[in-house]
Amino acid sequence: MADRYWISGSGTWNNTNTAVWSATPTGGGGASVPTSADDVYFQNPGTYTVTVGAIVTCGSLSFTGFTGTFAGSFSININGSFTAVSTMTWSSTSLLLFASTSGSHTITPAGKTFSSLSFGFSGGSTGTYALAGALTATSTITVYAGTFTTNNYAVTAASLASSNSNTRTINLGASTVTLTGINPVNFSTTNGLTFNAGTSSIVCSSGAFNLYGGGQTFYNVDFTNTSKTSVSITGVNTFFNLSMAGRTSIGIAVIAIGDNQTVTGTLSIPSGTGPAYRTFLSGSPTNTTKTLTCVNVVLADVDFRGITIDGPAAPASGVRLGDCKGNSGITFPAARTVYFVGAASSSWGTTGNGVWSEFPGSTASAFMFPLAQDTAVFNAAYPPSGSSFSMNASYNIGSIDMSQRTSATVTFGNSLFPIIYGNFSGGLGVSYTGTGGLTFSGRSVQTITSYGGAYSNGLTIDSPGGTVRLNDALITSRASLASITVVSGTLNDNGYNITSTNTASGGFQSSSNNARALVISGTWTFAGQGNAFSLGGTVLPTVTGSGTISLTATGAKTFVGGGIQTWPKINQGGTGALTITGSNKFQDITNTAIGSVLFTGGTTNEFNAFSLNGTSTAARLTLGSTNTTQATLKKATPWNVGTGSLDSGNNAGLSFASGGNDYLSISYINGIIPSTGNRNFFAFF
């Protein structure tokens, strides 16, 4: 072990430059570069700059007496204490790696701002590092191993991270720890972690972040951003006080609760500027319920979904609480009917008195802002005919009733993603603009009444245990992404048609691991290309009904059937190639356009009827596999594909005699007639 003193003015600290180092404070250069056992001193006054030009290592690092600038971006491995001084300028973005394997060491920040710090990076550290002053870092403080003690000093950083399986300890004492990043606390893996929160306060100031608590016990945790948009909390954590500032900007902050939480002091979510400035506590994922065990609560302008409040605070009550279903242990205000009284070009949520009233045409009151259990009515007078109103936040909404607008026109603009928990009723005079979506999450029976209106928004069904039922035909003109998405619950067309006029991409999508169902009794028409109708997830939906799915794109489109055995009729409705993936069962397959129909090679698809036809030898419909492996097709009657059909090769089990289908060009198909006992393989509903 030796000492190394910087005796140069401006220069570079690297692993080869010996001219800048001395073994004594006043000696000449030429000493070896510092090793992990050597303490390093920068103590000469002056206005020079020292630049770290490589990854370097030292024992302790001290700047006592230094008045210059310390710069560079390479990591510094420090195996002892660290002492900065107020007289120096720290412009370095180096990662400070505190790597002592034993003993107790101090960190004296002296008011300087560092980039990032890590403790015990090698994983074998048992050293203790304690602060001797307030610490500020622009990036992450990471504890890999050893002990990090704040000594009650304030700490500011983007995040505090300790996610590994090494033996390590974090002691926060009475410190205020302000974290500004998107992952302010990251304790995802907590094997080997001892976390002592003491009486500390962790302040999370970002507008959107994930708190990975790792099941630890915290003292005070405060979400201070008044314009926050989204927060998630994971880990079965315990807090003394958990506080979330109310919003001071129009809109809604989503707090996703991924695991049960306990608050032994107070859960505080106070009101922001007014009722249209809301906080949304939601169990995550949406088909689950999370429990908040609380001793005390302070709640105002909060919406709840999938939340149980337990403990001494239950049943919890508050001011203007919204019931977004799946809750218990919370007392909500009774459902109301409120009336829109805004002028032309008004928004759903506004400042001041807002645009909602207790009675039609009366003065607006901020306190009439519709909650998730309320019905919002747009009568014939408001907004004025020929004007518009818009969704300006992804609010939680009960029912929307525009049925009184039988002649007075109005445009409903929505480029966001509000959630509907009741019924949605348009009006004869209502048109729609915007690229957003409407999500139906009522968890019971909800109805959609369109009155011929074409929704420019996508429609999503995410209603655990619930049903969304049509009261008339539904048309969506969404220009991109999926027009209809089913995440959970049942979509029942009630015998009415569903039409998506989007010709670019998408159409219907249902890819999740939730219980869900489709009742297809009408005709579902999708004009999109690509995956025009697509299923996915480990749990497939239940499909019933005797309707029709018609894919009408003039470009290539795919039906991703998922192996469902109860599909209704599928129709090739456009000249673009239709590819059917999976081994499915259909009631029938038809075509209203001449275009190819392809099945994935190696799959088996069964049909109660098979009604594909071309129109002439000059307009044959192509039937085949997607590759040079045969696709197997089964139906209960003989495979006569007509004298006008063309055997394009590599087929089996098909008769090109008269009768049955005709005018097909067929290749790589194996036609099979099931045994008598297997002919009736459909259950019709």
Summary, kept brief:
By secondary structure, this protein is mainly β. It has a 21-stranded mixed sheet that branches.
Number of contiguous helices: 0
Q: Uncertain spans, ≥5 residues at pLDDT below 50?
A: 677-685
Helix content: under 10%
Strand fraction = 35-45%
Global outline: globular
Describe this structure in words.
With 685 residues, the chain is mostly beta strands. The protein has a 21-stranded mixed beta sheet that branches. Strands 6-9-12-15-18-21-24-27-29-32-34-36-38 form a 13-stranded parallel beta sheet, with no helix packed on it. 50% of the residues are buried. Residues 677-685 have low confidence and may be disordered.
Task: Provide the descriptors you would attach to this structure in a database record.
685 residues; 73 strands; 13-stranded parallel beta sheet; mainly beta; disordered C terminus
Topology record:
Layout: E1 3-6, E2 11-13, E3 21-22, E4 39-41, E5 49-52, E6 56-58, E7 61-62, E8 69-72, E9 76-78, E10 82-83, E11 89-90, E12 95-98, E13 104-108, E14 113-114, E15 116-119, E16 128-131, E17 135-137, E18 140-143, E19 146-149, E20 155-157, E21 159-161, E22 168-171, E23 176-179, E24 185-186, E25 193-196, E26 201-204, E27 208-212, E28 220-223, E29 230-234, E30 238-239, E31 241-244, E32 251-257, E33 261-269, E34 277-283, E35 290-299, E36 302-305, E37 307-310, E38 322-323, E39 337-340, E40 346-347, E41 356-357, E42 375-377, E43 387-391, E44 396-397, E45 399-401, E46 410-414, E47 419-420, E48 424-425, E49 430-433, E50 437-440, E51 445-449, E52 454-455, E53 458-470, E54 474-476, E55 484-492, E56 498-500, E57 508-511, E58 516-519, E59 523-526, E60 530-536, E61 542-544, E62 548-551, E63 557-560, E64 567-572, E65 578-581, E66 585-591, E67 597-599, E68 604-607, E69 621-625, E70 631-635, E71 646-647, E72 664-667, E73 669-672
Parallel strand pairs: 1-4, 2-5, 4-7, 5-8, 6-9, 7-10, 8-11, 9-12, 10-13, 12-15, 13-16, 14-17, 15-18, 16-19, 17-20, 18-21, 19-22, 20-23, 21-24, 22-25, 23-26, 24-27, 26-28, 27-29, 28-31, 29-32, 30-33, 31-33, 32-34, 33-35, 34-36, 35-37, 36-38, 39-42, 40-43, 42-45, 43-46, 44-47, 45-48, 46-49, ...
Antiparallel strand pairs: 1-3, 39-41
